What we know:
By secondary structure, this protein is an alpha+beta fold. Helix content is 29%, strand content 19%. Strand 14 (327-330) and strand 15 form a beta hairpin. Helix 1 (3-9) runs antiparallel to helix 2 (11-20). The chain starts with a helix and ends with a strand. 25% of the residues are buried. The mean pLDDT is 90.
Amino acid sequence: xxxxxxxxxxxxxxxxxxxxxxxxxxxxxxxxxxxxxxxxxxxxxxxxxxxxxxxxxxxxxxxxxxxxxxxxxxxxxxxxxxxxxxxxxxxxxxxxxxxxxxxxxxxxxxxxxxxxxxxxxxxxxxxxxxxxxxxxxxxxxxxxxxxxxxxxxxxxxxxxxxxxxxxxxxxxxxxxxxxxxxxxxxxxxxxxxxxxxxxxxxxxxxxxxxxxxxxxxxxxxxxxxxxxxxxxxxxxxxxxxxxxxxxxxxxxxxxxxxxxxxxxxxxxxxxxxxxxxxxxxxxxxxxxxxxxxxxxxxxxxxxxxxxxxxxxxxxxxxxxxxxxxxxxxxxxxxxxxxx
Length: 339
């Protein structure tokens, strides 16, 4: 019987053994990337019991601001309450499960109101109003979960305004799961002279028709740039022309031209793999290491952190850092990718 069939048919213990059989020391079975049963099990177990990036606090600056996310099949929302705190709630009415907020970002005012039957909830999820409440007399509404309002997520952690959640109760705690990999977020935020930043400029959404693991593996794959990005580098070189090597480059050229570096440049970058799948590429250098000077910005960093600390922050410019399995960040270009 194929490993994928065992995943579907043999229950939890047999399925776990089948998944382990997909990975050897020197090869991985293709079912790990293409089999629907494996993917379904990953959503139920791995994605449900590991910490996932949800949103950034700057996306909900005002009371009533909401960001909605469907995470591993669960509709969730991050909301800023009236007293300024953050809450993560199920984005579904406690009555019959209708989504409360359809937009990706919205301001709901002072309360949530279901568009189906008109149940209302406070911004922290507490129940406010139930139409025809007298019709529930003699029932167990007051003592059941529906009567308590919107379900708050039990496992929420905020690190430097990055909001992470864990859907299930199994699995390690936040600090144990990410460990030293959180330094990638610290470096991203420390590049701000005020020690904070905001998500801005909108979101570029891309549908990549592959298994999620393929995408994450590609982020820190140093062999593909010379082939995959060859045409982009050729176009950049054609536009840039024969300008001297020390000519000031626009940011687009600073980012694209280094992708034409030889294999040896990428091979010598250096990398570190952390427990639980996290990784950093570019511990020695990266294509972001040679950006031109920004005197005013660097002066602001020195004023904020002092000469030595500002130098330490700015000289560390990894290619990518992956906080497995849903977030990847680039410190120097101040960019992040979310699955």
